[in-house]
Amino acid sequence: MTEYSQQNAPKKGLIVSPIENGTVIDHLTPGKAIKIADMLGLMQGAVVIIGQNLKSTKYGKKDIIKVENRFLTEDECSKIALIAPHATVNIIRDSALYEKRNVEIPDTVEDVALCSNANCITNKEKVPTRLFAQNKSPLVLVCHYCGFEIKGDDLKLKG
Ligand SMILES: [Zn+2]
Fold it and tell me: For residue 106, how far is its CA from the centre of ligand 1 (angstroms)?
């Protein structure tokens, strides 16, 4: 027997089919789904459904990722926030919405993103990066080591 929640129920005109167990990452900035799926390593073996430029009542357009049998950690949610600050993470269990989370940009971004200053010690030596969120919207990060300011659009994540 399959039970469907409101949120996960098949609707008329539904483009992206529901999943039974896993995570739905919704309200992603259009064009960012592939980047995020790649960053989280979702493409390796798991069933992944990606929708791009879907209609969003809130933001006009959005991307969405559905991944089966994969549940995101807090750390992974923070990473998503750096790229798509309005994203919501829905955990689906037995075809029902189990948990809904908003992603949050952390005050300190530890060893997730790179400093854009080529001469920074974190780019020269094996020093973990540490960036402070000076402003969250629009996103501006400041390097703990060299004081370099990195705008959200220029942000590069660790590979
Ligand atoms: Zn730096």
Answer: 18
At 98, list the tokens: 């189990």
136 CA distance to ligand 1 middle (Å): 18
> Helix, strand or coil for residue 105?
coil
Domains in the chain, CATH or no CATH each: 22-102 (3.30.70.140), 108-157 (2.30.30.20)
Half-sphere exposure of 137 (CA within 13 A, CB side): 6
In single-letter form, the type of residue at position 150 comes to: I
Mean pLDDT per segment of 10 residues, for the chain of length 159 residues?
45 70 95 91 89 89 95 89 93 95 92 94 96 94 98 86
The answer to whether the CB of 48 falls within 8 A of the CB of 38 is no
For residues 88 and 104, what is the distance between their CA atoms, to the nearest angstrom?
Answer: 10
Contacts of 132 (CB under 8 A, 6+ apart): 107, 108, 109, 141, 142, 144
60: Cα separation from own chain's centroid: 19
